[in-house]
Amino acid sequence: MSGVYPLLTLTQIKNLLQARFEEGFLTLRDLPQPSLFKDMDKATERIISAIKNNEKIMIIGDYDVDGVTSTTLMKLFFEEIDYAVEWIIPNRFRDGYGLSAQIVPRIAGTDLAITVDNGISAVYAAQVCKEAGIELIITDHHLLSQEIPECYAIINPKQERCTFPYEDLCGAQIAWYLIASLKNALGIQLNLLPYMELVAIAIIADMMPLLHINRMMVEAGIQALNKSSKPAIRAFLEHSQKETLSAEDIGFFLAPLLNSAGRMEDASYAVEFLSSTNIYDARVRLERLIGFNTLRKATEQEMTAKALAKVNTEHKVIVVEGKEWHEGVVGIVAARLARHHEKPCIVLSNDGKGGLKGSGRSFGACDLFSITNSCREYLEKFGGHQAAIGLSLQEHNVADFTEQLQLGYAKAGYVQEGFDPAIMGELHFSDISFELTGLIKEFEPYGQANPTPKFISKKVEILQVQSLGKEGEHLRFSFAQEGIVIPGVQFKTRQTYDVGSSVDIIYMVNENHFRGNVTLQLMIEKILG
The dihedral of CA 368, 373, 374, 379: what is its sign? Predict the structure, then answer.
């Protein structure tokens, strides 16, 4: 990990950050037109026809943050134009993912069904809809399989002959674009900025690359969030004792709360929270989400400990399984293991009857979707993208599947070496300044494809170390390099370090605001002895 990195100057850091944005920073004026999506105009005309003919419309969402916000967007739009629609989010435990054959009986009598953030893999369910006389419009952003559903229209930027210039969008962005297209076709006055609030939450939560229009939509959405009149947003700010929200607040606090409903019980609770019409309902619904999230943390902690004990460290792609592990947290546990072992990881829950369902998370440059896709013969269900997958298979196929994954990883030519591409370069303490943090702020918000600048400093002396937190789970340091002393903090670690030792440190630089004073501090990711 402490390989050879370039020694950086402030100018070089600026150039490296600017190089991430080939088009520069886009503005709302740069948003491409909705009609560039394949089937957008066709879908829009069909929805307007349904409205004019008073047909029954059903929105079908998904149980993650992207699916919840996409569903809420459509719900709020139809409420604003005063047209009654129904919505449903399949339950993770009873129904499985997205549009499936088992939920079609529950939407009987629907004239037009619109999926948001799902549907592109629902080949059989689309056929069942057709047989039930339900016309179907699919809006999705996930990768397409060889066979696509037969339906009235598909809006997905990843499909062939789609002329929309950006592929890496989340479901809520496509839902927002559908709303924009409907607004234009209906010729109505409608402020689309409040809808951008929910889009920003989804882009961050679904880990879309924060480049091109994604960065701009997040920036516009966060600005709108910080002026929001939505009771749910006001309740969250009140609870978190914050005056404004940042991308980090969304990613680390709000998104997990919204996700916890679908992980632990039912995602409809998150939709109800986001669409609260008064602060009193919003507060009550937020408390319920906080309860789900507390339970999620405890379940995740217990399962992570069990999963860590089952890891085969010889494998390049880790696969672990456990009996009746909670399906709602397998993805988070996979992410924890991937970070801990610095390898892609798949965590599977065995239902006790020979069936396994699970999630995978990638690490580094590894395209986990591609590698797993090469093992399709062992899988019953499979979907996702480069960084995250969902899958199911039978117990008797696990050993062969795991072996095939290792071969796929080797064939792809990935090399696990002592060099972290996420580290921008080596930084000397003399170049850590408010000018540096000011420069870093210019390129916010940070996230996928625009990671927060991470640096390495070598031959740093540990002057002081002390534990923090109720259980001493965090550490505070004083570091020195050639006479320059800078404080640092490392969260969630049980490592012990010797005062006076010389180490290499990997970190991010931030400003610590405390009682009116602003100081520089290092957020330590790793200490290499």
Answer: positive
Give domain limits for the chain: 31-291, 310-412, 420-528
**What CATH number is given for 310-412 in this structure?**
3.10.310.30
Give, for all 529 residues of the chain, the pLDDT tens digit.
456 789 999 999 999 999 999 999 999 999 999 999 999 999 999 999 999 999 999 999 999 999 999 999 999 999 999 999 999 999 998 998 899 999 999 999 999 999 999 999 999 999 999 999 999 999 999 988 889 999 999 999 999 999 999 999 999 999 999 999 999 999 999 999 999 999 999 999 998 999 999 999 999 999 999 999 999 999 999 999 999 999 999 999 999 999 999 999 999 999 999 999 999 999 999 999 999 999 999 999 999 999 999 999 999 999 999 998 999 999 999 999 998 998 999 999 999 899 999 999 998 888 999 999 999 999 998 887 788 899 999 999 999 999 999 999 988 877 655 567 779 999 999 999 999 999 999 999 998 889 999 999 999 999 999 998 878 889 999 999 999 999 999 998 888 999 999 999 999 999 988 888 999 999 999 999 8
179 to 127, 162, 185, 229, 246: CA distances (angstroms) = 26, 18, 10, 20, 25
For residue 445, say if its preceding peptide bond is cis, omega within 30 degrees of 0: yes
- Residue 101 CA from chain centroid, whole number: 27
Give CATH for domain 31-291.
3.90.1640.30
CA–CA distance, 73 with 432 (Å, rounded to integer)? 43
What does each C-alpha distance from 151 to 131, 173, 240 come to in angstroms?
11, 21, 44
Structure tokens at 45: 């005309």
Cα(361)–Cα(341) distance, rounded to whole angstroms?
Answer: 12
The DSSP symbol for 106 reads: G
- C-alpha to C-alpha distance for 82 and 511, rounded to whole angstroms: 47
Round to whole Å and give the CA distance between 16 and 162.
32
When the candidates are 3.40.190.10, 3.40.1500.20, 2.40.50.460, 3.30.1490.120, the CATH number that belongs to 420-528 is 2.40.50.460
Q: Show Cβ contacts of residue 150 under 8 Å, excluding neighbours closer than 6 positions.
A: 123, 126, 127, 130
Separation in Å, CA 360 to CA 111, 207, 212, 332, 412: 36, 15, 27, 9, 18
Q: How far apart are CA 526 and CA 506, in angstroms?
A: 5
List C-alpha distances in Å: 264 to 229, 252, 289, 294, 333: 29, 18, 10, 10, 14
* pTM: predicted TM-score of the whole model, two decimal places: 0.91
Nearest alpha carbon to residue 368 among 293, 318, 303, 309: 318
Strand pairing report for 112-116 and 57-60: parallel
